[in-house]
Records
---
Amino acid sequence: MIELNELTKRYEDGVLALDHVSYTIQPGEIFCLLGANGAGKTTTVNILLDFIQPTSGACFINGQDCNKFPLEAKKHVSYVSENVQLYGMFTARQNLRFFAELGGKKGLKNQELDDVMRSVGLPEKALTMRLKNYSKGMRQKLGIAIALIKDPPAIIMDEPTSGLDPRSANEFLDQLRKLRERGKAILMTTHDIFRAKQIADRVGIMKQGRLVAIRKRDEFKHADLEQIYLREMEAAEAV
Amino acid sequence: MIWKIAAKEFLLNLMTFKFVVGTILCVVLVAIFVPVLAEDYRQRLQQYDQRVADNEAKLRQVKAYRVLTPTVYRRPQVLSVFSQGMEKRLADSAKIGFGTRPDFDKIPEINAGPAEVNPYLSIFPAFDFLLIFKIVMSALALLVAYDAVAREREQGTLSLSLSYPISRAQVLLGKLLAGLLTLAVPATIAFLVGLLLLLSSPAIALGGSDWARIAMMYVASLLFILAVYNVGLLFSSLTGSSSLALILGLFFWVVSIIVIPDATVYLARRFLPVTSVEAKDEQIAGIEKLFLHEWHQECAKLPSGGAANATLGPFHGGNGDWFILVCNPAEAQYWEKGAAFEVSFNVKYARKFWEVEHDYVESLLRQTRLARAIGRLSPACLYDNTMNALAGTDLADYQSWTQRVRDYRDTVLAYIRNKTDNLRSPLYITQCTQAEQITWAKGDKFAEEATRAAEKHTLPLNLEDLPRLTYGMGIAQGLQRAAADLAVLLLFNLLMFSLSFVAFLRYDVR
């Protein structure tokens, strides 16, 4: 479970990147964070992963304070970045083994590693291929495999479908559904309203550091999410 | 976890082009230059052995203790192959004497090089192990380090790694360990190849102390390249860009390897100029005049002073340094009483000469010490000092040798005193009998006859029990001399890594 409690971040240059943001993502839920550039989506991710400290408020992963006990909190989360860049000179298997061991999974057999990579849709020939020869779509899939092999209760994804072709993006969403079925609490930041509508259980709409709205799937399932998004943005601007 | 990160970094480093090129270059240079340096050492050793043998041959001809003037030689250091230091630029022999001109105390600093130039300050030695490591290995260390952090940030792998339950300290320690392991590969190969080539040379024989010092040199080499790596790591942790880290690293490299060693020489000369050699020579000339004046005065007081003065003045060559045959009764009479005076007189003036020379040498040494002190700003200079100290090719070893020579002079004097009843025995000056001396004094015709008779029974002295100068360097001495620079090098590493750590704690990994 991922929990944000009055999370606020003001950068040294005075920019308020997060303004008392609170929400909770439950196990088996995909929460998509929507917003324009500078809305505070990536800042949220950076605080959750303890890359930066919040000005006030707190956030928790599986009950562990992300900034007071970051190493404990990180045991329970996997991270998939916008552009998964792994070690180009290593093969996919070597990359996967390295990150599995960082996550505490030691002594895994090649077969186990290969099974995880196959499960995310990587073709057989890619398993022993060097990463420098991977396409972006393949790297994103391997990123999911890396997140999967750690098998944490929470997964944070920062713009994971950015730059993916439609087919790769769809395959990626299939993987997310599987993760949801396995009870993972997933936070995904995205610009892509179309993909968010396809996959999200809830969407959070951010504008200039504020969480201006949270909509459940029932509210946008049969509606135009883009219209909801624009309406909320305009409302926030009026406030 | 640290080991896991180190293993990953190590493997990635091994796969880089720069690592392969750097390793090959280092090994090839070692393979080219070690045989050259080993051959150079063989020739110098051969020359040393020849000179020692010549000296022994001359000693076997000595027929009076007054002309016992052994020459001592400094044996070339076998580890000069690793670090030539100042060995070839300093004097390597000294002549010990008591009865002739008292210049024996001038040894050997002044004879080391041109008078106007401080020979200790030259910075570019031959292309030995030291220089290969200082240039090639340090450049490789920098190239491995500059992108250790910055590249991972640029690629995004750093943020992914730090999303795992590992601390930044673990990441940085892993990178440090990886750097050490990576650079140890070419360093170890270079040392092994160098040693194999060295041992294949018939002139090279390494003892236990040599092996211990080679091991210390290996450790010092690793510490040096690790120091450069740590500087690269610091720049990589300070900047968000690997290209900026590389530029800063190259700037450091040029300053450390080229600018600081040059600047130390310039600054030392600027702030501690050496005593003028002309002024020193003038002082020496003044003492020589005083010496001659006093000598004549004192000789006049001795029995048969006139005769002695005429034939055995202070610059008298006699029958050559290695043979003396005095059949002049006046001289013999003089020497029975005057030898002790001559020796103590010469020793007294030798010390006066030495005081002047010493001032000059001290000014050179002060300049050198200042240069070394300034040089400690650079890990390259620290490495230089450490390697030279361990190889026995540094100034301290040379000074130790000259001190040993002075002590040896006292040993030889004590030996002569012991053999000549404290210089009172006629053996100090001649083996002629009383009868031969009387015959010699009758005139030229008889002098020839007396000389021939004396030559028949005048045999070379048995000098087998004359103590020989032995000089060697143990691991303890080497370590003692290298300790300060080695400690500063270690501190430099700790400081750079601590700064890297602080920078990395504040590093924006996003």
---
Amino acid sequence: MAMKREITVTVNGQQHHSQVEPRMLLVHYLRDVLDLTGTHIGCDTSQCGACTVLLNGDSVKACTVLAVQADGSEVTTIEGLAPEGSLHPIQEGFWEKHGLQCGFCTPGMIMASYQLLKNNPNPTEDEIRKGLEGNICRCTGYQNIVRAVQYAAEQMRTAATAPVGAGE
Amino acid sequence: MGVAAMVGAPIKRREDPRLITGQATYVDDIKLVGMLHMAVLRSPYGHARIKSINTEAARNHPGVVAVYTSEDLKGAVGKVPVIIPLGKMTEGMGIRGPLAEGKVRFYGDPVAVVIADDRYTARDGRDLIEVDYEPLPAAIDVEKAMQPGAPLLYEEFGTNVPFAMHPPTEEIDKVFEQTKADGGIVVKQRIVNQRLAPTSIETRGVVADYNKGSRSLTLWSSSQIPHLLRDYLSAAVGLPQHQVRVIVPEVGGAFGSKLNVYPEELVTAFASMKLGRPVKWIEDRSEALAATIHGRDQIDYIEAAATREGKVTGLKVYGVSDLGAYSQMFTDVIMIGFGYPVSCGAYDIKHLHLSGDIVFTNKAPTDAYRGAGRPEAAYIAERVMDLVAHELGKDPVEVRRINFIKPDQFPYKSAAGAVYDTGDYELTLNKALALVDYQNLRAEQARKRAEGKLMGIGISSYIEICGFGPKGTLPYGLYESARVRVEQSGTVMVYTGSSPHGQGEETSFAQIVAEEFGIPIDSVMVIHGDTDSTPEGRNTYGSRTTAVGGSAVFTAVQRLKEKMKLIASHVLEANVSDVALEDGKFSVAGAPQKSVSFTEVATAANLSNTLAPGIEPGLETTVFWEAEACVFPFGTHICVVEIDKDTGEAEIKRFVAVDDCGRQINPMLVEGQIHGGIAQGIGQAMYEGVIYGEDGQLLTATLTDYAMPLTTELPSFETDSTVTLTTVNPLGVKGIGEAGTIGSTPAVSNAIIDALGVEHLDMPYTSEKLWKVIHQK
């Protein structure tokens, strides 16, 4: 077993000091050490995107980032996307448009959608599909996920305030 | 929204708030005090003899608590259950213990387990186990595996074929001869339904927690079958049933793959019982692709006779089902038991001959994957229609019309012996044709062809069988159960024996209850997936949950309504037969001004002080509902493709689906099921396939290699529906979980084949394959 390293990571606005093995994946750090189990593991090889989180505001697949690589960074997970008791427009969109069934890919899909809408607040269907190509859903056939993101884009455009939370 | 309009309303899912906020609990989210982690050592060979296993280094590794092989399990853990063993399987062929004994028979076959303090250490320990294997030739090609001289998985049986079905052919031969003598045609084709990996995004996982004090075992599993798992688990580990509790937490997709009792569930239970500590095992993706069941893998030799008009007079099917190395719960009966009964599809084919072999090979076990036998059957029927149309130069629409079972023929007993409940197949066909604008589409195709472009239109007017039961289908009853309790406050608890895992019955079952009681949906809570709190159920698979489980809920509500009317009649001083429940109020017909509310009756029943003499306190009932017959959903899917001649790349330009699943409790959920089903059906046709090398190596062992459809590879689907009620349950509902998968694959296949102008081409339609056909390489 390798020597543990000390890391400091700010997750959903809260700072954590931890001792971790250098090989520990960020996703295991979030799930097993910090008990933030909303981020899921689907494939271990960065294909499915179930583990997508924001690292310093950009989406990454947490199954291929080491916890030590996140040292000194800010991480936002699904638990921190919206303030307690409220929903982010993307979360609302997935609920409104039946954009999920089993829900397992959903947190990663929502985080990837966040990145997509940050870069392109008014995406076409093709742009949404292209933007979410790195996230696999086995339940929905994606159509309602596209509708969910369109709904969120509409809400976010019409909202007077900027999207809240999200580690920026 | 008025409460009376609950059934049929697209209510947003009540499951979603926890799922979209990261607050749901899947099995890997469970953390118990003192919990250990298990890693599984699997065979790197398709077929090999185990000469020795050295676990010493693993045992001595810091943090490793235990290492187990099949030796340790002897006498302590039973076999992996098989529901209906056929032929030589009744003598033990293909039945396995949880860990390999003497031989490994597929890549991924579990050999040993390591239990350690954390998941990383468990893997470290696993890597320290030394197994000395003697590799053996593998039986991979299923048709070669049937031949004499093929490598044998079970030498003592002298064959890889545990069961074969070859009835005499005289009668069907006569039909074929007569048809030919009358100037008709015979079409023949070998068609392959390739092996698929179900690939729910959540892999399998289990936490076992044995309490040595109470001698009771609690097992959390990502499973479709809490009750079946509890029953088999208790037998396998030798604990009385009441000392085993199975809890199914949130399940991240299953598609049939979690309709099984798996070796890892038995071993974690054993380990926890041995160690007296909780043990968790979470499958990684490569393990899932190697060792969770696969689906399909069936070859069919089909032969159909038809008149010059296109009316099919006889159908002959010889099927070969690739079982893989062992039987899981339904492995051996997928083709014969679930597929063959609907092999004539929506068509009135009077003469049918079915034969087949089921064969063990050095691959992962196959079992129920979304559709389980019915996609293969639909593929047979829908390819037959197009083969006949192709041979006669007729429009495939016309061939389907002339062969359809007509609405006045229901209930219809097919040549396969299945009794179809209700149907109107031309209705969905006509609606789909209108939606796609078929005549203009064919004209467009003609124009494109003239320009040298490859455009294809494929039709599939599928049917399927679901809602299992009825009684007698399996060795156990296929009922479903519901316990419904009206609380003192007027809220309602529903405990269902079904085990939904993404389909949304926490919402749709609540809709049924809210509508029937005339109360707000927020007053209803649906509980599932815990054997301690729910009545014995048969759980969720085979598109049966709403048809069978929903009927149990509906029936329980009716019983409670009767009791509530009786209580209300005393308050209203009226005859019980005159009391009606409307909008949450009990009143006497014609005198609505005097009423007693649903909540008042609930309070009276539960407090009991004010009840009339002779009325039992409380408002709770349990119903076990068993169907008298199966239901047969149907629909028409139309796929439009274009193939790039230079690259061989096929693009689905349009996909139209008109499905009929009877009454829709929640059309939004129905549409969601159709979307997902179509996506998986397209996945089979276009992209997916589990591939093994000749030596038994798995070549599709990560999601880099196993190609599930991505966002950019699917179109938006154009969906619509018709409603043809069933008569076999009180809700009039059929099933929709698998229909999309069953209907879509043949539509894509027929479209590609139409575009290429060939007689047949096996799936998946990769660019390379299509390019080779186009360029005749």
---
Amino acid sequence: MTRSRLAERLVQLGFFGAVLVAWEIATTRGHVSALLLPPLGSVYRDFITLLSTGQFWPDLGTTLYELAVAFLIAAVSGTVIGYAVSRSGYSVKVFDPLFAGLYAIPAILLFPLYVLFFGIGPASKIAMGATIAFFPIVLNTIAGLIYVKSLYVTAARSMGASPRQMFWSVMLPAAFPVLLNGLRMGLILAFLSILGSETIASFGGLGHRIVELGENLDTSKMFAYIVFVIIIALLLNSAVSFAESRGRSHPA
Amino acid sequence: MNAAHVKFPPATARLAIIAAAFGIWEFAARRFGDPLFIAPPSRVAVALFQLVHEKEIISAVGLTCWELVVAFVLSIVLGLIIGLIVGLNRFTRGSMYPVILLLYAIPQATILPLFVLTFGIGPASKIAFGVSHGVFPVIMTVAAGVQNIEPLLLTSARSMGATRRQILTSVIFPHMVPSFFTGLRLGMTAVLFGVLLAELYVSQSGVGHFTTEFTQTFQPQNLFALVAVLATIAVTLNELCRWAESHFTRWRVS
């Protein structure tokens, strides 16, 4: 068992090793232009410079600010509207297919409109991120709240729970895992769409920086920024998974 | 339920809400909107009828549809092959699955410039970028579909003397079908995001070229109309996948 685990790790290491070796050979011995694929060494140097000078801070700040505001808008409006809709079976039947249908439209299409409305600054990215994150949050809120086992509801009601107690002690804890799942999806989608819309039209942010470096053919620095963003994304992913597992193990 | 609470069927109420939204939009855009930035639905409808007669627009929309279809087909083929390789063998799953998860976690929007550098600003970069989005959901669902097979089914097939090939074609593949179609639907959503994002980023003759032009020349009615056309195409493609998913999974209990 441990031997096969070891072999699996070796294959993984071998895969990344092979990629790096192929990269190194292609850039030093091969005929790949440094504009297309910069040598590993220079990407490494640029990455270290990037970290040590802290020149990433303004762009990281812009992107995280956009993400935070967009997520806050989507989380508050999504859970409040989702809760309001879930109150009656009729409004669920009216609104749930409506939200699901709108969710099927690729929201990135709205970005040109948002640029027209909100300008090329952070506001259009916030609107984009909030729009994309709203739908999984509202749909999961509705789904979580309406699928609370009727047994719990009946039991709580027969014990004389007030509507307030019902919400805080029964509905919310029971729906919490599904709610969290929606919030996680919303946050990740908002992050991806904000990065994406920054590449399309922006003055700042990590997505914009990468595109600008690419357009100036400063490829080595662009790769350094890409590595940086990938690390940020992985950190964000693991932070969200951590929060989700904590939330699951201590429901309310 | 008393007479004061007579309720319309949900579908009617939904249509009423949509109609009301259009009404508010029409009123607000005419009353408060700047015609350089927002167009009421009536003007968008007029623009829509003019746009469908413009050859350049039609060919741009056609080009984008072609990019979407090619990217989707490539995603399915590659995703199916990689998914089967990863899912069917315990060793490849243990070793390669984490690598694929890691690659999936990379925000692809950041490597969009690399696609343009490598594949140029024509359709090739949009297709490649769409595939880079669409292939992962297909891999994940195919790999998951061939894994979570009830041991009972495998044991009984084996005890009846099925060969490895027969197990593959008669047990594993049919079992994979539902999750495969789920993967197709998720893949379509991802391909739409990838191709449209790449179109909006840089485009010579696709729809991205015209969205940029309409935005910069302040023609919101044309922009809204083009977005409406693309949204309709996207929703149609999504619905086709959703239909295929429910059609091919209905034989399953639960």
---
Amino acid sequence: MADLAYYVIQMALFILIAPLVGGIIKKIKAFTQKRKGAPVYQVYLDIIKLFTKDTVVSNQASWVFTATPYIVFASAAAACAFVPVLPGIAMKPLPGDIFMVIYILLLGKFFMAISGLDTGSTFGGMGSSREMMISAIFEPSLIVAVITLGFSAKSTSLGDIMLHSARLGPAIVQPSYMLLLVSLVLILIAESSRIPLDDPSTHLELTMVHEAMILEYSGRYLALMELASLIKQLIFITIIANVFIPAGILVYAGSGFAVLMVSLLAYVAKVAAISVAVACIEASTVKLRFFSIPNLAALSFIASFVGFLQYFTGGGN
Amino acid sequence: MEIMQLLSVLILLSCFVLVANKRTKSYIRTFQAQSALLAIAAFILGMENLSGHGAIEIMFVCLLIVTLKVYYIPKLLSHTFANVDYKVEKNFFYNIPLLVLVSCAIAVFNYFSISSAIGGKPTELGMYLANSVSVIFIGFFFMISRKKAIGQIVGLLVMENGIFVAALFASGGMPVLVDVGIFIDLITAVIIMGIMVFKINEELETTDINKLKRLRG
Amino acid sequence: MISYLLLLPLVSIVAFWLAKRASQIFALGIAAALIMLSAGVKLSIDVAALGHVNKRYLMNFYVDSLSIIVLDLVLAVSLFVIIYCAGYFKKELERGKTDIKRLRLFYSLLFAFMFSMILLLTTPNMGIMWIAIEATTLASVFLVGFENNKRSLEASWKYIIICSVGIAIALLGIILLHISSIGIIKDAGTDLSWTYLYEHAKELDVNLLRLAFIFMLVGFGTKAGLAPMHTWLPDAHSQAPSPVSAMLSGVLLNNAMYGIMRGLAILNKAMGSGSFAGAALMALGLLSILTAAVFILTQRDYKRLLAYSSIEHMGIIALGLGVFTPASVLASLMHMINHSFTKSMLFLSAGNIYQRYGSKDIYKVKGLYKSMPITGVVFMLGIFAITGMPPFSIFSSELGMVVALFKNGSYFAGAAFLFLLALVFVGFAVTLFKIFYGNAKGEQQKSLKPSPYADIVLVAMLGVITVTGVFMPDGVLKLLTDAQRIVTGG
């Protein structure tokens, strides 16, 4: 019973914090453009507003179109159950590891892609094919990075991985972990559709990837899709925060309420710091030409591959 | 020391970033970043040496690295290439992801051959050596994969950086006189290559090295 | 003695920029070269008597029989080349193809080049040796590109890039040598010192030493023109002005070989039988001779042909070093001397031909005997000499090499060597004999005849290679034997 409560609270936490991350990124980007920008909680208000609006569905669409937003949201919410915020607390871990997370998210992505094709508009199809290509070329680096983390922690459960790196020190300086960090940051940018891979605020037909797939959605469907992509972004940020900056996650159940609150605050601070970093990366580069994206993917792949190599030839830690 | 291992790996990573780039300004910036990492490593070693033996030699080398490689040579290169060339390289022999994967293969090959040449067991010295020799070979590979003159000059500079990395990490530096001499040689070489690039641009209207094809056989 | 050798080039460079007329520059150059040669001879006598000479001015300087041989070659060939330059540039100034400012630049760069080579040969510190080798590349880049046309620009770009890359790899080798010696160095004086490393060679880390030697071989081999790193050599040596080509072929390649020899000496002393190093050197040597033979067969440019011949002879020296018996190493050292004189003589006569005919193409040069008899005879005899005819010196060193090869049991290498030498002779004969016959175009003007300085030099060098072919003075033989003992470790 306590376990169920724990997982429910964790999922609720994710869903609540995710739009905050989006808001922070938008605010930092506004600062770099010398604007004041919308307040940080604006994203919440936007999503609530969308829930109250009507939906417009094309008469060419099939059941896929109307089912997809629920499927995508459900997959994102389910995935975030496996990503522990405070890994020490879970008493009985859910049977599922990081590969489960990756492939549940991939389920959502698949449905998003075919729904883009469903309405018969050209933008949707174009967005779907581009999204699939980006996903395909970033997948090897993600898998290699995850495998290395798994070898290092001797288990692929995310909780074990995070606890292992917490034992290594408050901030990771191992060479192989540093390379994996670089690789995972690039993957984060790819999965959350940020510049330099994809501009999240554009609707120019030749440049949008993620936006193209959700172009036809409106009302509560759009709200669910937006929320789902924000949750996905937060999942990856949490993985990076807890695995590579493990300060403050070594709390166990029964450590007292105050300690728990402090770790939670530490987690929120880490997430905020990483979102600021992502926003700065976004503000300082340009969107790449689509055929230059394999260059970034290759860089990410060899960063994780050399990290894997470094782990083995460095004697293994 | 862990931070030295980290710096050694970051320098290798900057080599990969170099190969993945297309803009000439980015070549120079990446070289600058790599030299900055090298300067940090020299600084840390120098501090250690200073407090341990009271020898200021490595700090002096660190200072040299900062003034020459981080500041002066990139300035010289940007000035030379500001008016000479296109800003983005368009033609490559093979596309960039393939080049990046080849440089990864170079790093892998080096890891295995150097550890087996040294003795078989993975040691810290072996890792430092493998990283530095990878930087040297990736710099060389970068040189041969670019068609414009700036690619060759930056490749040579990255090779020299790799040699410094080898000297610094694996053996705590060379005698100061040798280091100073190497720097002087490097600066002179870069100046001479800059002059030659101007001359080539004057005679041939381009700095595309592939067009230098008159001497065959 | 050593101080003269080091200071005189620097003083001369300053003097060149103060001189007002061309004739002053010529005279200064010849005087400086003469003084340096006499200092070198005196030094050789000292070394032959004492075994080695040590001096200290700010840094340690050390000359033993191996360095003194190469040093004497540098000084002797430089003297011949500088005398030739007087005549060559007098003609160039008369024809208006150059002016006194460029002449000053040429002489300054030439003497800077000589200074770096002398530094290379007199320092025991491997790091300073590396700096000096890089300095020779940098000093000679503008000499190679002196004529400022598209082809020489291409040649000098290739030269600086490929040689810098090669030398960088050699530096990696030297650093690995340094790392392998970390356990045994005591203070700053012995760090990277060749004499110290040679003495304590058995205490070095063998694995790192092996790696170090491979990198040094590839790096210095690039500068020496061993295949497959030779690609800069035909361009650089053919596009440079002829005195520079003579210096590059006759002197610089030897210095690079010297670097390899120093490394080889340490490796052999540390590892006992230098089996893998020997195999590598033999392979590179044979590959160089093969590459040179193949390209010589199809050349149109006579200077490029001579450049490929340099590659061939460097391959022969490497082959001798690879076999590693005392007889073959002695033959290699002798071959170094013989090749220097013969090749410089050939390049200087080629300079005369180029000045007269204005073209490097074999098909455009006809009737050499009729238009320039002395140059013609010297060039023809030089071609015979370089391909190994008796009584010239190259014959004796090649014979020594073949005998050493067969005595050592490397029958395949010996047979391949003989076959490739024959191929090279065929290549020379087929291409070069065209230029001697036929009718010369252009009148027999006085201005087109080569200057008397040039003729004197050519005949003198021809005399040297004839004499050394039949007779080797005892002192020189003793130096050679000592040097061979240094390389093979006693």
